[in-house]
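As the next step, I selected for study a record pairing a protein sequence with its backbone structure tokens, which the following lines show:
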Amino acid sequence: MLLALKENPGLKATGLNVPAAEAQIARARARFLPQISFFQSFLNSDNPAQVFTQKLNQRQFTAQDFFLDNLNNPAPYSNWRTGLVARQPIFQAGEAYLGYQQARLGKDIASFQVVAHRQQLVYRVHQAYFGRQLAEARLKVVQEAKNTAAANRKLVQARFDTGDVVRADLLSADVHLARLTQEELTAASQVEIAQSALATAVGVPEVASRPLAPAPRKTSPLPGNLAELQEVAKAKRPDLRRLALAARVAQQELTKARLDFLPRLNLTAEYDIDQKYFFGSNADSYTVMAVMHLNLFNGLAKLAREREARAQAAQAQEQQREFLDHIRHQVTESVEHLKTAHARLKVGQAAVEQARESLRLIRLRYEEGLTILLDLLTAEDAKKEADLNYLTALFDTHLAQAGLELALGTLTGPETRGEGK
């Protein structure tokens, strides 16, 4: 399990949502800080207004420049401008603060996504592990049944040689043995598939060839009170908590849409150096200004944005309610699956003992010629089916317990190094 939590590429990919969300927080925080930029420009023009402005900025304006002909038909003039610009938001109508809060909630959402993906991965590994254990156990049961059928075939051959049975019995034994050989081939193929499924779930192809730890034979406990389990799921499910945070983000987006009608105020400071030649004499200047921006009409786009945000906030609330109902159903379904698996296991255990004893008695009777071959073959099949049903029920109890823990949001698996910090 630890190997899956460390190496599974899907979990790694989901985990990268957390640093991405942290970067979003840094971006949102940057909206409170000043923006400082450097620029360098070059302009050459004979446009009267441009030439007039450039000479003024360079402090190169003379009395001759006021002559009408010089004003109307100036010679081309160049200007190199070097500058620093600083912009500081003063009032953003709460939009930047809400954006910062949304970014922080986004990180929490990403964290719950990782927890939910981790729980899903743990369940898939449980499913693949018990699936491989069951496939290998089923193969052993089929092989045992085949060995029993081979031994019984020898018994039929011996009785045929002595003339106690007809050739039809010998052919029936051969057909039965051939059918079990086919079942063995199918079971072996299922083992290969189960090994591949486990390697895929873990995310390490080499796992397919590794031997597994022995499967637990002790059954999982029966579930507790349904209402209490539903309350546990309501408090623990990471995907439900993620939806609750998403609903808060949607509500804050509605608040931002409403605040969008308020004005914005920014402070800008600029320092410029103007010169005709890049390494020539220069003149510097500065500008400080406060700018208030208030949109009076933009085609009702802000009203439309508010309606959209209101609908999305209501949608998030309804999705949360729907998922809560879905969780209640999942818990109920998981509890019933676990109860059923326990009941099947109890019945299956008794059936295995009965089938084993029945096969022993019928084989003795067949050796004495007191019963027909069909009864022996039927008893063999009954024992094989009883063994398979018992194994399926046993592993179903473990898988149903994992499914219940997944529905409750408590299926965390082992801690990897550094997670507890």
In short: Residues 417-421 have pLDDT under 50 and may be disordered. The first helix runs from residue 2 to 7. Residues 216 and 398 are 9 Å apart (CA to CA).
